[in-house]
């Protein structure tokens, strides 16, 4: 950073409302949702043997998905090799699908391990994949605490789901 130049920041004030919400449903959504067998309602795109792919109900951008192990684990070092390997393969496949369907210019990929790291759900780890487009940030979240999402979650789900089915 050159002297005198301020660092750029991306503010996401709507996330704090979710993180601090004391009225979240009981239990663990990453354990409960796969057991409900309502994949469309729960935005589950794919089920593997060790992990599944689910859309984020509170996305940063359209196409924000997560790869999640079935095992209720919060510590990355406790994942078995099989689970970690499948999650990595699903991450790669999901990025390929998102590239084909949504044509992003890049991705944010990662995990928030622990509340201090920003995890909204810190007791069940999950890998975020967030498609990004050049110029996809705007002033609405900062000035109006409003996100501009160009497509409804269900429409994004319906666009992505066939690609997970054909590659299973």
Describe this structure in words.
The chain is an alpha+beta fold. The protein contains six helices and five strands, in the order H-H-H-E-E-E-H-E-E-H-H. The protein has a single domain, classed as HIT family, subunit A (2-Layer Sandwich). The chain has a five-stranded antiparallel β-sheet with strand order 1-2-3-5-4, with helices on both faces. A hairpin with a 3-residue loop joins strand 1 and strand 2. Helix 4 crosses helix 6. The chain is globular, with a radius of gyration of 17 Å. The termini are far apart. 22% of the residues are buried.
SSE arrangement:
Elements: H1 13-20, H2 29-35, H3 39-42, E1 44-47, E2 51-55, E3 65-69, H4 81-102, E4 106-110, E5 127-132, H5 140-144, H6 153-166
Antiparallel strand pairs: 1-2, 2-3, 3-5, 4-5
Helix pairs in contact: 4-6
